[in-house]
Write a structure and sequence with these properties.
This protein is mostly helical. About 45% of the residues lie in helices and about 5% in strands. The strands form 3 sheets. Strands 1-6 form a two-stranded parallel ribbon. It has a two-stranded antiparallel ribbon with strand order 2-3. The chain has a two-stranded antiparallel ribbon with strand order 4-5.
Length: about 500
């Protein structure tokens, strides 16, 4: 394999180095840290308080992840909707960082450390909580909360670090706090084993919430919205990477529940453009409570995009071809007010600024929801396409009625499952502009290839490219030789 010489400054702070090392720490067997359910609840409460304070690390409990964890580090560097013409025309040569940007080679991924820190902390809460015998009701909503957080972090780690075409390369899992060091298995589990753990955690949380209601003043992830939506996301990814019809059926089931179950959303999409613009991207403030106007578009704003982040520009030709003229998003989310009535032929690439227009109402910090009701509609439609094509077409029309002007006679109607899936993928591109976590992962699960040429240098991303998997930090593979590095990254030379 071609060797990549990458010049970079490795500035991972101590907060980024907790990761798998902290997650894999062990304690003597039969040792108790937290004796009663109340103390366990208070310990988790510290974490949840940090979680609601802009997801920053501000206390004794580990933060859920760091601000620039994954949304900021994927949506420009990897998403295929971005133009790099400004780099191609710059008078000076590309910097090393710009070369990595264009070449889609990313080294310093804090996701490993931050998500494994969450897993390790939740292991403690779950293990100690399960040992208690007092206050079963409190146990349900405390342990249930921790189970969903652990499932979410394991899911993100799997998406980022596991190849979709190598079932054996999952991620390391340790859910025990009592294991002796010599007994710890530091190797990567199969992806099926990882999915089994994630699904088991979510099923446990669902069983608990069916018996014990959430505490709105305490819980964030322990509610039907998050459990159903995360279940749908997990099965959607699992089905996409394996093609199993039974998995598509589960994705369909949970997306349906997320949209229609009265304990969750229990409502339709907004019917007017003003509501669409206000809720579909912004959601409510950082709380675990259902969003504004009874429409829970976001349960929690997972990350922030700062206003100072450069806007490399959306591809003009793609914008014009991807969005139909009757698409409400084509102008409202890309063009300034004085350009929204201009003829399409008069629009230039410089006029497209989704960063300013889509997220402008949020001020200097743009908060990106992780659990979108709109995503559940698109998961539902895609899953139905594999199990019930006629119903999939019906739900697609419902979706289109909320995104397009005019009557249904002007909507696109797919004739086959493949045509429907292709349209759903386009809708996800239209809907989730600036949400690179979705755009990048859609490219990965569908084996998308793309070529970029900048300053005469060609960079190609193959459909099964090794760069679709993030590099497991060297600090982990050096200390834990049982953790196998992702193929391709062993040939990368890091020059500090």
């Amino acid at each position: 394999m071609k060797r990549y010489i990458l010049i970079t400054v490795l500035l991972l702070g101590t907060s980024l180095m907790m990761g798998c090392k902290k997650y894999l720490q062990y304690t003597p067997a039969d040792t108790r840290f937290l004796i009663d359910m109340q103390s366990i609840k208070q310990t988790l409460a510290s974490y949840l308080n940090n979680f609601q304070r802009n997801t920053k690390y501000v206390g004794d409990a580990p933060g859920p992840w760091l601000r620039d964890c994954y949304y900021n580090t994927t949506y420009l560097e990897y998403a295929d909707v971005w133009s790099f013409d400004n780099l191609d025309t710059k008078s000076s040569a590309l910097t090393e960082n710009e070369k990595r940007l264009v070449g889609r080679i990313k080294l310093n991924n804090p996701e490993w450390a931050s998500h494994y820190a969450v897993v390790g902390f939740m292991n403690l809460i779950i293990a100690e909580g399960l040992k208690t015998t007092d206050n079963e009701e409190m146990k349900n909503y405390v342990v249930g909360e921790a189970l969903v957080h652990r499932a979410f972090s394991l899911f993100k780690l799997l998406q980022y670090y596991s190849p979709v075409d190598d079932a054996e390369l999952g991620i390391p899992i340790n859910t025990s706090i009592d294991a002796n060091y010599k007994d710890l298995d530091l190797s990567r589990k199969s992806q099926k084993e990882v999915f089994d753990q994630i699904i088991s955690d979510l099923a446990d949380a669902e069983a608990r919430i069916n018996k014990t209601s959430p505490r709105t003043s305490y819980n964030i992830f322990y509610n039907y919205n998050v459990i159903y939506r995360l279940f749908a996301q997990v099965y959607h990814w699992y089905a996409s990477t394996t093609g199993g019809n039974e998995l598509w059926a589960q994705a369909e089931k949970y997306a349906d529940l997320a949209i229609n179950d009265q304990r969750a959303a229990g409502g339709a999409l907004p019917l007017d453009l003003a509501t669409l613009k206000r809720l579909c991207f912004t959601g409510s403030a950082v709380t675990g409570i259902i969003g504004t106007d009874g429409y829970p578009e976001s349960i929690f704003n997972m990350n922030e995009i700062t206003a100072s982040l450069p806007n490399y520009g959306y591809k003009l030709d793609l914008w014009n071809s991807l969005y139909r003229d009757n698409d409400l998003r084509k102008r409202a989310w890309f063009l300034a007010a004085n350009k929204r009535t201009a003829p399409i032929a008069d629009i230039t690439a410089a006029d497209l600024n989704p960063m300013a227009n889509k997220l402008a109402p949020l001020g200097p910090y743009y908060k990106v929801p992780a659990f979108r009701l709109s995503e559940q509609y698109l998961i539902w439609i895609e899953a139905l396409g594999h199990t019930n094509l006629d119903k999939a077409k019906e739900v697609l029309k419902i979706w289109q009625s909320q995104r397009y002007s005019g009557d249904a006679s002007g909507y696109y109607s797919p004739g086959s499952t493949q045509e429907l899936v292709t349209e759903v993928l386009k809708e996800r591109k239209r809907e989730f502009i600036l949400e690179g976590d979705i755009l990048w992962l859609d490219m990965k699960r569908t084996h998308t290839s793309e070529t970029r040429v900048v300053q005469g240098n060609q960079s190609k991303l193959e459909g099964n490219d090794w760069k679709y998997q993030f590099m497991i930090p060297d600090s982990e593979t050096e200390k834990n030789p049982g953790i196998k590095q992702n193929p391709g990254w062993s040939d990368v030379i890091i020059i500090p």
